[in-house]
Amino acid sequence: MLFSKMEKDNYEQVVFCQDKTSELKAIIAVHSTTLGPALGGCRMWPYESEEAALEDVLRLSRGMTYKNAAAGLDLGGEKAVIIADPKKDKSEAMFRALGRFVESLNGRYIIAEDVGTTVKDMDYIHEETDYVTGVSESFGSSGNPSPMTARGILAAMKRCAKEAYGSDSLKGKTVAIQGVGNVAFSLCEQLDQEGANLIVTDINQEAVDRVVERFEAKAVAPDEIYQADADIFSPCALGGILNDDTIPKLKVKVICGSANNQLLDIKKHGKMINEKGIIYAPDYIVNSGGVINIADELNNYNHERAMQKIDQIYDQIGKVFEFANTEKITTADAADQIAEKRIRQLKEVRSNFFKHEHSLLTKR
């Protein structure tokens, strides 16, 4: 069953990691290294089952391939998940054990933080391997990537506003944000500076209270966020939330958020959103600011250079809209086709290179 899943979407490698001493149970999924070594975050989550963890890591790693390709990075796609509760199960030993597994892949995978993991956790991993990004600034890293991810979301949201309303100004616009963790909190801060109004929800009441107090946001119950009277819906929690039940409830003109795999079914629900007249910004382009930032660490990190690259998300989203309009397809399909084209082009370049090298060896 696992091999059939891998074959269907061209996964290269799945590694199951266990360390009894630290109680580590993790899965690393390398989707593709066509563009280069695979870069992706490590999620820590109390999955209901090992099957749920496997499903999540496979979907996330494939998304990283498309994200890195669409962002123009010479990096492949991968993801790791730790099956544990980040609030109570973390330990230095656990992350150092994971670091040893990452090291054993000899650079095929470069790990970074994600939901449930932090810069401190990456520092522990760094004790065992150099194939890690997003570590403390004392190691010459960029540190916490959340503000940079939020910067990219803001750039994408402005381009969406221009498409929907004729202006990229967010002043006076109401943004309904689902999930207000670290990335979304930074987004709230930047939206507040832009003069936007905020409606927020989260299963973590403390996180909601912090945003309400800091930015005078309006709080609603988790199941009420879909029906909020807003201009923009920004999903910043977990995936699969755009589906048969939620899409009909939406009153917004724009969907633009950081959550991965927002569409439960890319084809079906991308079409439903399109038919409803809502502009959808593909999630893996919207949330690529974080990976663009940490990828710059691989080239002697420069903060200004990283910000300039992240700001280009505005134009990347614009190209997706233009391609979708020209081809009369959904924006989700447009983004996939743009990413797939870049991957195909590099495969052809490499294939021609190896044919040339083989020809030279044959002549010798």
Could you tell me the radius of gyration in angstroms? Answer: 20 Å
Going by CATH, what is the homologous superfamily of the largest domain? Answer: NAD(P)-binding Rossmann-like Domain
Count of spatially separate domains:
2
The rough form would be described as globular
Q: Helical residue percent?
A: 40-55%
Compute the number of strand runs.
11
Specify the CATH class of the largest domain.
Alpha Beta
Would you give an account of this structure?
47% of the residues lie in helices and 16% in strands. The protein is built from 13 helices and eleven strands. α5 (146-165) crosses α6 and α10 packs antiparallel against α11 (303-311). The protein is of the alpha/beta class. The longest helix has 33 residues, at 331-363. It has two domains: 2-67 and 75-139, Rossmann fold (3-Layer(aba) Sandwich); 146-318, 3-Layer(aba) Sandwich (Rossmann fold), CATH 3.40.50.
List its traits.
single chain, 364 residues, alpha/beta, Rossmann fold, 2 domains, six-stranded parallel beta sheet, five-stranded mixed beta sheet, 13 helices, globular
